[in-house]
Amino acid sequence: PKLSICVILLLLGCEWLSATIQFESLVMNTVAMEFIVQLDEILFEAVLPQNQREDVEVIDFLLERDMVSEIELTRRKSRSYRKSLFYLFGLLIFILLYAEYMQDVLPTEIRFIKDKCQEVLNTNFRPLCSGWTWYLRGRPSAFEC
Fold this sequence. Notes:
This protein is mostly helical. Helix content is 64%, strand content 0%. The chain has 6 helices and no strands. The protein has helices at residues 2-18, 23-37, 39-47, 50-57, 70-102, 114-124. Helix 1 (2-18) packs antiparallel against helix 2. The chain starts with a helix and ends in a 21-residue tail after the last helix.
């Protein structure tokens, strides 16, 4: 069940964050998403008494290892590097597939929203001065135009 919860959180989180319009909202949504991901550990710290937390922390599920040779250690390191690269490429492929085929927030073609964006840019970001006065910004003569 934990894997399915992680996958659902990944998909919903990607959709939620990609629907964010403003940068401030993106930061706030990212912090909220991190809170949701860390909620189980927060509850563990807040609800369990100290002695039970210590009991859980001292549980050792690992078995003692046999002494291994230097060649085997090198093989294990290279295997773990390959595994990390595999995860990295898998993550990049997921991002590309999500952006192209799975997300339903942004349109597939940018020309579909070009007119709307141009309206917003024309109303909100209209220049104060016309012509070549942009190079005077910050100088006293720029305030007169």
